[in-house]
Amino acid sequence: MELLPRSPAEFASARYWDRFFRQRGQRSFEWYGAFPELCPVLHKYVRPRDKVLVVGCGNSELSEQMYDVGMCEDIVNIDISDAVIRQMRERSASTRPRMSYLLMDMLHMDFPDGHFQVVLDKGTLDALLTDEEEATLAKVDQMFAEISRVLQVGGRYLCVSLAQAHVLKKAVEYFSQEGWVVRVHQVASSGDKQQFVLPVFVYVVTKFRKIPGSAAQILEICPEEQDKPMRVESTEQLVAAVKDRQHYALLCSQISKTPCKEQVSLDLCDKESGKPRYTLHVVDSSSVKPSRDNHFAIFIIPQGRETEWLFGTEEGRRQLAASAGFGRLLTVALHREQRYEGMAGIQAELSGKVMELAPPGLPARQQVPFLSVGGDIGVRAVRHCDSSPLSGEFVVEDVKGDGTCYFRRLIFLQNRNVVQSEARLLAPTPLPGQKKRRKDKKKASPAEPPGAIDKSYLCCEHHKAMVAGLCLLGGPNALPGELAVLVVGLGGGSLPLFVHDYFSQARVAVVEIDPSMLEVATRWFGFSQGERMQVHVSDGLDYVAKLAAEAPAQYDAVMFDVDSKDLTVGMSCPPPAFVEKPFLQKVKTILKPEGVFVLNLVCRDARLKEEVLAALRAIFPLLYARRIQGEVNEILFCQPSPAGRCDPAELGARARALEGALRQPGRPWDSSYVLADMLQAVHIL
Q1: How many CA atoms lie within 13 Å of 320's alpha carbon, on the beta-carbon side?
Q2: Angle 405-407-411 (CA atoms, 0-180°, nearest 5)?
Q3: Where is this chain compositionally biased, Basic residues type (predicted)?
């Protein structure tokens, strides 16, 4: 039996529908949207005393079910198919006396103006608007004009639709230009396997008198999980919001049937603000053999730790899933702009939504565990928010790390998953004679930092490697004495501070292009200037060029730790101009003959990286490289003369000697920081 039309145009043909309903017989045909799913939305907008018109009724049971549950009885159904109208009259004549079926074309209706309070359309607009040809759009305009004519002011046009972009856009533009209020409801699914994977929507369009000269639009969307509508500013935003929900439904359908070959990422947004509240990653582990209890788990990443390798990279999350022992692990990152009511609150908020992302084969009524580190959601306190013309929006925040340590971080929000600068905080030390705070006493205000900056601790592995590379200075038995060091890129100031404090005779010059960063480093990261530490607010390119022209060969070490603001380039550190041959020649010019140029290179583009290395080799005859494990960073140590070449054994000996000189009685030293270990993986390029 062939029921499908030969072309989309047949959807508007009475002959096609007569043939369709004769061949189908008495069996009702529902395009989509079962009555139990539609009922919560219809109840909001259809009152028992309303006079309701159903356009393109077909042999759907929707009108009958509305009548039978007492939602409304004064219902007029129209259709262009004589066959289906006769079927439906026979079906309801004796049991539903107040409901009628009329043979009528909705493009040319016989009803008087303002005759109905509700016009209901289930799939009719979708069937008519199959393309955007001029003739089709003219029919749709005629349909809308007739609906507008027969509706009272204050009446509602309820259109059940799959909300294809061109259909939704047409409806919204037409009625909003007429001054009507447009609200789009997403229909909550029953949870059963549906004929249509795409979600069903109901356009609720309320008729208002058009005010001459008014261009105001009222456009709203109601997601399935909430009753309160969200206002949007334009048709494009409304279409985009619907498209997001359609994509989500397709995603859920796909990953419920087959395992994910690649990790899937999505954001769940706050109901009030529309801003991201949770970032989810779906990680399937092929190494885990599924059993009844290890199909699926949710892992809540503690606040502030989402940038760590284990949680912030694909390989890290893959390792986390395998070690957790679940076939599918859903990691959940919490956003700094949001407030959370503990693990229990997050679990209650996410329980329904995460089950939509469950893996295939999950047993019915399976309890899905929520996991975390230490069983809590961590601590994050935003200390400072600001923006600058050069760095954009940024935040300074304190987060609880693994164990009892707290860390202060600088984050540029244009690249929010990267920690720009980090420092460990010292635990508050009681004054002599001061008693420890009792547990039942009022806690310190969250606006107060838990302690001062620990300047002896380098949080970043690449900073540790950069400092260790200073053992290349001088001869095999020499230790750095009076040093002149230039650091380009201040950030929070941890690197220049460490060099200043531990190389007691070093004179450190720092170049920072953004004056806001100097203020942040001084106020929040314990940075200060003095006789041996000076900051120059300048473009590093200009500063080095000026030095090369006026004062060559004056620095023992030049260190570049400067980020690129251009996220379109496959190299985030340094900006490309800092590794071009003419500029590298200027860097070599300001170095002493036995000096060292230390570069933090972060480059994901393999071809671009080879170009950078070629440029460095062309200028510096001796080049060492140290890859930072688990990160993209690679530290390059470049020397102007090949005479200082060291083999691994000599490099280790120099590093141990340097560490011995830096460790002084009474001066704190991080016991985990072993300079020789930082240089073990160094190789000559």
Answers
A1: 28
A2: 155
A3: 434-444
Q: Which of 340, 322, 332, 243 is nearest to 284 (CA)?
A: 322
Cα–Cα distance measured from residue 86 to residue 103, given in angstroms and rounded to the nearest whole number? 9
- The beta-strand segments (E) located in 144-271 are 151-161, 181-186, 201-206, 219-222, 230-232, 264-269
In this predicted model, what pLDDT tens digit does every residue of 111-130 receive, in sequence order? 999 999 999 999 899 989 98
C-alpha torsion 39→41→45→48, nearest 10: 10
d(CA 230, CA 566): 34
Phi, psi of 551 (to 5 degrees): -145, 70
**Alpha-carbon distance 541 to 584, whole Å?**
10
SS3 content of the chain, % helix, strand, coil (to 5): 35, 25, 40
| d(C-alpha 505, C-alpha 483), whole Å | 6
User: For 600, how many CA atoms within 13 A lie in the half-sphere containing its CB?
Assistant: 26
- Token pair of 605 as six digits: 């583009």
Dihedral of CA atoms 313, 314, 317, 321 in degrees, nearest 10, equals: -170
For residue range 188-201, list pLDDT tens digits in order.
765 544 455 788 99
Question: Which residue type, as a one-letter code, is found at position 367?
Answer: Q
* Token couple for 636: 């390059």
The CATH number given to 258-364 is 3.40.50
634 touches 447 (CB < 8 A): no
Element (H or E) spanning 100, and its range? strand 100-103
Residues of the chain with CATH 3.40.50.150: 8-208+215-250, 460-684
Q: What's the CATH class of domain 8-208+215-250?
A: alpha beta
Residue type at 330 in one-letter notation: L
Structure tokens at 110: 């016989």
Among 450, 470, 296, 434, smallest CA distance to 383 is for 450
Beta strand 406-412 pairing with 419-425: antiparallel
Are 401 and 392 in contact by the 8 Å Cβ rule? The answer is no
Task: Kindly report, residue by residue over 520-567, the tens digit of the pLDDT.
Answer: 999 999 999 999 999 999 999 999 999 999 988 899 999 999 988 887
Strand partners, 265: 281
| Cis peptide, bond prior to residue 582, ω within 30 of zero | no
* Superfamily covering domain 460-684: Vaccinia Virus protein VP39 (3.40.50.150)
How many whole angstroms separate alpha carbon 446 and alpha carbon 406?
13
Q: Which amino acid is at 154?
A: G
356 closest CA partner among 245, 270, 274, 241 = 245
Q: What is the dihedral of CA 562, 566, 568, 570, to 10 degrees?
A: -10
What whole-number distance in Å separates Cα of residue 72 and Cα of residue 55? 16
Tell me the C-alpha to C-alpha distance, in Å, between residue 116 and each of 94, 97, 111, 402.
24, 19, 9, 65
